[in-house]
Specification:
This protein is mostly beta strands. The protein is built from no helices and eleven strands.
Amino acid sequence: QVQLRESGPGLVKPSQTVSLTCTVSGDSITSNDYYWTWIRQPPDRGLEWIVYLGYAGRVDVDPSLERRASLLRDTASNQFTLRLTSVFPNDTAIYYCAKGLINGGAIIAWGQGTLVTVSS
């Protein structure tokens, strides 16, 4: 059974860069049948998709974040890392990594989430 675990700093200051790593066990992030993604939920708001890691290492970033968000894939460690630069207070959210089916798009596994607070 796949497990996803997020890790990263809980508190960052405005304008800094935050890196969040998702460690996957029980499956390979190079699998051709699944995609891997970062999603966040700000306080009192719905889920927001950030970045997608798909077939053959393809990476797609939400257009609203493409200037600040990037993704690194470490196949040796079976990890993928979200890097978000120049953070603002409204980047405060619970950040989740998740696994989905390339065929159909449904998300089938979630990490427990990690809270990132942007504050001076």
